[in-house]
Amino acid sequence: MSKVIRNGTIVTADRTWKADVLVQHDKIIAIGHDLHADHEIDATGCYVMPGGIDPHTHLEMPFMGTYSSDDFESGTRAALSGGTTMVIDFCLGDPGGSLLDAIKRWDNKSTRACCDYSFHMAITWWGEQVFNEMPEVIERGITSFKHFMAYKGALMVNDDEMYSSFQRCAELGGLPMVHAENGDVVAQMQAKLLAEGNNGPEGHAYSRPPEVEGEATNRAIMIADMAGVPLYVVHTSCEQSHEAIRRARQKGMRVYGEPLIQHLVLDEGEYANPDWDHAARRVMSPPFRNKQHQDSLWAGLSAGSLQVVATDHCAFTTEQKRTGVGDFTKIPNGTGGLEDRMPVLWTYGVGRGRLTMNEFVAVTSTNPAKIFGMYPKKGAIVEGADADIVVWDPEKKKTITAKNQQSAIDYNVFEGIEVKGLPKYVLSRGEIAVDNFEVKAKPGHGEFVAREARGPVSQALSQWKEVVAPRKVERSGIPASGV
Ligand code: DUC
Ligand code: ZN
Ligand code: ZN
Ligand code: ZN
């Protein structure tokens, strides 16, 4: 079955032009004019863009005594409804456990995915077994490794473990990633706040100030430099972290930063809401910041010092959040965002002149495809690419509300926000998953995407050593030349 997307304007990360797109089965096979097919999709007045890629989700993940509530079916349906055609989820093993066993669990969980997906592997401990299993993980197409520098006593790794893992990544061409927050400092701040009677959700934000994130980002960057490996910093939320990334890039390191759509548009004022449920529903790590930090993140996206906008989609119901009544450290950390990332970023970014349309495509699709080793199969409108395509209607409006969402939870952190710009049609490997704004996603359609390992290692200028013979040192005080 072939399809042609007609009369639209194609927008990619590097250009904008008018042409039709011909899709045969699951691939784009031609771009041009006078193309014919069995089925026509009318894109008049719309932009035709590569489907969004969200490289940061936690679907049905065991965390903080419960499981995140969107599974691969509801999570990927939510993704498609908002124009995202691929997610990369974090495969999380138990500390002390086998990485390969964790992959089996994630394989089983993902069978009903509606869109394509891949996994990152979390490194939650270090030992000979992890060292020995990493090559097979990479052979399976899981080429990025996440390290939690926070969640002390649970997922956190120390510098010793992180440096060992980074060196192994350097050897194997893997890309290390970090959740950068100083978990030791967070634990002390949490204990102090609780001892002083600050047990409400606002205590969560007080216990994780920007300095906690800036310190950890700096530390991870320096450790990556010493290991000679690139680094991807997830959920960059503040200027301190962004500053460290900018500096490292200026020195020649391949360091990538990923703001979340939540941090770009929602601020710390949300935690001051007197309604406990309202504030607790927005508890995530790192927490929302103030306007200055938001401005820094927007600037980084347009200047290129930050490369990706993701969601960290980790959805918990109000009931799950309420396990933290009386102790904010027990509120499951996480918010949703999968179905709102693209429309909200378009509205606040393109709509307000902060991002060009091409930059929008870069940060939502093309950059993650390149960074994570799947370009141009994903993230591109070119012949031979997967037909993951969004037909975007820039005039269509809606008010975000939990009542109409695909996500399984009972609220939405973007409730009441009006967006302008929505996906009219979404193709997932050639199948119509959104048809004239109606979600038609098919559970089980999604396939695992094996990704390629990265090429060169990365070192800052500080690590580039001059190759010179060691100088001979004269110690006698008598000049060697005898002058
Ligand atoms: N932060 C969250 O808020 N949830 C999931 C994991 C994380 O790092
Ligand atoms: Zn056909
Ligand atoms: Zn994280
Ligand atoms: Zn996360």
Can you tell me about this structure?
The chain is α/β, with parallel strands linked by helices and about 475 residues long. The protein has one domain: Metal-dependent hydrolases (TIM Barrel, Alpha-Beta Barrel). It has helices spanning about 70-80, 100-110, 130-140, 160-170, 185-195, 200-205, 210-225, 240-250, 260-265, 275-280, 290-305, 320, 340-350, 355-370, and strands spanning about 1-5, 10, 15-20, 20-25, 25-30, 40, 45-50, 50-55, 60-65, 65, 85-90, 115-120, 145-150, 175-180, 230-235, 255, 390-400, 420-430, 430-435, 440. Strands 3-2-7-17-18-19-20 form a seven-stranded mixed β-sheet. The radius of gyration is 23 Å and the shape is globular. Bound molecules: dihydropyrimidine-2,4(1H,3H)-dione and zinc ion (3 copies). It catalyses: 5,6-dihydrouracil + H2O = 3-(carbamoylamino)propanoate + H(+). It is an enzyme of class 3 (hydrolase). Its EC number is 3.5.2.2.
